[in-house]
What does this fold into?
Amino acid sequence: MSLTHTEVAEPTTAGTEIGSPATEVAVPGRAPAPHGRAYTVGRTEDVPPGEGRAFVAGDTQVAVFRLRDGSLHATQASCPHAGGPLADGQTDADVLVCPLHLYAYRWVDGVATSGAMAVQVYPVREVDGMLVVDV
Ligand code: FES
It folds into this structure.
């Protein structure tokens, strides 16, 4: 497993709601996104490859990550174990590792590899140079 360091950015303003989110696919063992609204949270260049940043989408704190392969992922900003700053976690192609106690969460569904609680994962995409998260 190849891990990379991420940095935490100060949350931005509450983001701009831009309309309906993409259709969410139900994943067993994971709760659906609670609100179903799309927010523009920042610019594409705000999250460099291999790093993560914290943003606010409406009333939800999210962490957005760009992996080295260019793919984007988004999770809740705080670790469900003890509130660790997930945007400062380590990443690889399969998991996000919390910086506090090293729980690993799968990108695909947010489930902890240890069987502990899951993190909420959110759809994220780039639209016209902006990062859009559905929360
Ligand atoms: S706070 Fe994240 S693993 Fe403990």
